[in-house]
Task: inverse folding
């Protein structure tokens, strides 16, 4: 397997897994703070709903990114399409995301998927 494809796999799977770990640690901690805070119930409900939505969204993207990185390593064309989409999204994250997203796109699109083992 090409070194660049392995790099794309590692740079997608590792941050995705790290995102899941952070969500797994931070969300219960934030929930505990919300329970311990003495504020109006309406404020707690809004904060809990927004926090839950944000955590689920970020965690879902992290999970899909991790699975797509692993599936791309195994040769899945669907995972490759997802990695191309996330690489395109990375282009708007100036300045580092532009470089990293460009590298990902170059590595993913320079060879046809059929040539991969």
Result:
């Amino acid at each position: 397997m090409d070194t660049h494809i392995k790099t794309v796999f590692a740079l997608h799977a590792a941050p995705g897994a790290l995102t899941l770990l952070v969500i797994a640690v931070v969300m219960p901690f934030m929930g505990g703070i919300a329970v311990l805070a003495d504020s109006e119930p309406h404020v707690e409900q809004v904060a809990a709903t927004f926090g839950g939505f944000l955590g689920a969204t970020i965690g879902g993207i992290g999970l899909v990114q991790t699975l797509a990185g692993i599936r791309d390593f195994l040769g899945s064309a669907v995972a490759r399409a997802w990695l191309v989409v996330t690489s395109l999204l990375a282009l708007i994250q100036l300045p580092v995301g532009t470089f990293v997203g460009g590298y990902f796109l170059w590595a993913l699109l320079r060879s046809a998927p059929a040539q991969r083992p």
In short: Helices lie at 3-36, 41-74, 77-90, 96-109.
